[in-house]
From TrEMBL:
Gene3D superfamilies: YbaK/aminoacyl-tRNA synthetase-associated domain. One of its GO terms (molecular function) is aminoacyl-tRNA deacylase activity. It comes from the Bacteria. This is YbaK/aminoacyl-tRNA synthetase-associated domain-containing protein. The lineage of its organism: Bacteria, Candidatus Komeiliibacteriota. Belongs to the PRORSD1 family. InterPro entries: ProX/PRXD1, YbaK/aa-tRNA-synt-asso_dom_sf, YbaK/aa-tRNA-synth-assoc-dom. Residues 23-142 form the YbaK/aminoacyl-tRNA synthetase-associated domain.
Length: 175
């Protein structure tokens, strides 16, 4: 999918400087970081969430996860959930994997985790699997009306214990 022309028009109209980054097809923020040889903190993970009857576009550094309970408190709803890919396609009328970080493209409100503001620049999804945009986080905030809150938590990685050596048993041939 091509980058929507209205994305470039909006950025140009706002006088925002950006760098279009071409890359192999990526489907996750982790893929994007690996492909572009960037730290996870430099990649923005954008997810659609359902909060009550409303949907929001949520942005966190790719090194973080979303605490849905904290997000529910910020949005003043009982429950926040991440809809299925099928539901996202139906709600936003997009092809799978083409969710853009820019809420105005989808006519949807956005909320940004405060930890994203620690980065001067970040990489954002354009809605294309092969193009992303790098721009300042401050400029990203100018693209739509966005709420800022604290709802991201550091990803927890399980430490893998080294496996015990397994004794090799010789097969005894039957006579």
């Amino acid at each position: 999918m091509k980058v929507p022309a209205k994305l470039f028009k909006k950025l140009d109209d706002l006088g925002i400087k950006y760098n279009l980054v071409e890359h192999r097809p990526v489907f996750t923020a982790y893929d994007a970081a690996q492909t572009m040889k960037r730290k996870l903190e430099q990649i923005t993970k954008s997810l659609l969430v359902k909060a009550g009857k409303d949907h929001f576009l949520v942005h966190v550094p790719a090194s973080k996860n979303i605490d849905l309970k904290k997000l529910a408190r910020i949005l003043k709803v009982a429950k926040v959930e991440i809809p299925s890919e099928k539901a996202i396609v139906k709600v936003l009328k997009i092809k799978p994997g083409t969710l853009s970080s820019f809420g105005f493209i989808h006519h949807i409100a956005s909320i940004v985790d405060k930890s994203l503001l620690k980065s001067k620049k970040a990489v954002f999804s354009t809605g294309s699997l092969i193009n992303s945009l790098e721009l300042s986080v401050k400029d990203f905030l100018k693209t739509s009306e966005m709420q800022v809150g604290v709802f991201a938590v550091t990803k927890k990685f399980k430490k893998v214990k080294p496996q015990k050596k397994v004794k090799k048993v010789k097969n005894k041939k039957k006579k």
